[in-house]
Write a structure and sequence with these properties.
The protein has one helix and no strands. By secondary structure, the protein is mostly helical.
Length: about 40
Amino acid sequence: MNFDHMPELHWMGGYPFAVVLMGVVCVSLYVVFKRRDWL
């Protein structure tokens, strides 16, 4: 596989940024669904 075209490999904090971004998306979706009583 060719992994040279993944932009997070060339950033200093690319993988921590991706993990934090996924966490923020998950928490925000949980809060929205909980407020609408979907959970």
